[in-house]
Amino acid sequence: MRIPPRPNRNNSLDGDTMTPMIDVVFLLLVFFICASVGSTADKLLPAELNGNSTSSNAAVASVEPETWEQPPVQIRIEPSIAGHNPIAVFLDEQPLSGIEVLSQRLTLLSRADPLTRIILNVNDDVEVQQFILIYDLCQKLKFENVSFAVRAQN
User: Given phi > 0 = left and psi -120 to 50 = alpha, else beta, which region is 129?
Assistant: First the structure.
């Protein structure tokens, strides 16, 4: 007695038919990841809007203004040529009558904006005590950015 041969059922039960479906899903996943990486945010894209549109007013209002940075204040100290003061003080190239006037102006400036950049431009002939006095004044008024100007070496 011969036993009839069994039909080959391995085709549908061994999982070989799922492999192409997994490959397709994986390729779709890779495609969408690669496509989304190169895109930019919608809020950064320029758009031409009608003048009558209300959305154009909203778009203008949502733009943040640029921050304004105050220019640095330069204090130049030189030896006095004539007069009773040992040094000549210039605030943004305007001559001042003395350290007292400089103190008053810096006090007003420190109340308005203590983050203002102060640049001390000291002549080589000025005594150290004189410009340290002005530097200490800037520190006392709590200016956070005080620096010294130097000449570039050639």
Answer: alpha
Average confidence (pLDDT) per 10 residues, the chain, 154 residues: 73 60 89 80 60 53 69 89 80 88 91 89 87 90 88 74
Task: Give the pair of three-digit tokens for residue 121.
Answer: 């431009």
CA 92/CA 116 separation, integer angstroms: 13
User: From CA 73, how far away is CA 76, in angstroms rounded?
Assistant: 10
Backbone angles phi, psi at 91, to 5 degrees: -110, 110
This prediction has a pTM of 0.53
Every domain of the chain and the residues it spans: 10-62, 73-148
Reported in sequence order, the residue ranges of 17-132 that DSSP labels E, i.e. its strands, are 73-79, 87-91, 94-96, 117-122
What is the DSSP-derived secondary structure letter of residue 94?
E
Report the C-alpha gap between 143 and 109 in whole angstroms: 9
- pLDDT for position 115: 87
The third-level CATH classification (topology) of the domain covering 73-148 is Nucleotidyltransferase; domain 5 (3.30.420)
d(CA 136, CA 154): 31
